[in-house]
Design goal:
The chain is of the alpha/beta class and 190 residues long. It has nine helices and five strands. 43% of the residues are buried.
Amino acid sequence: MNVAVIFYSLHGDTAALAAAVAEGAEQTGATVRLRQIADLAPQERWRTSERIRATREHLACVPVARRDDLLWADGIALGSPARYGTMSAELRRFLDGARQLSGDLAGKVASVFCSPSPIAGAQRAALQSMVVSLLNHGVLVQPPARAAMEPADTTARRGGSPRASSGELDLTLARALGRRLALTGQQTRR
């Protein structure tokens, strides 16, 4: 089972979630490609923010996603920050550039994740925009991994937000998503 975890991250939160999704898929024995989407903004932007610069340095060893990664994968996980209720322009451009692959992606299993937003409903809307794009490519969408969460987990009770009460990212949900994606992909390959 091959899983491609493809993400865009400006400040590092989505990258942390992507790494946890990849870890969850690897726990099932899947072969994982962790890939980032190239930034559209000029590099001068990196110098204006210490957090962006640190994220860019941290992600320097993560290869940039290509359309071939989508063809290679049996399972695809897409991640983006919640940008005003939609996916990032970088991820949108990547998916739009993969239009000619629509028939080749039919029947593959995919799931989505995004980092939280302070704007009410933005995260849900961003996830929905990614799902719609994936459906246009003919993939089978795997729902979020809430069912794999412990009922006592506060993240599950609050609707699946990946932030714990301390403000830190809760990566448990992302790992569960990776595991479910890989296991579902194994079942669809049979």
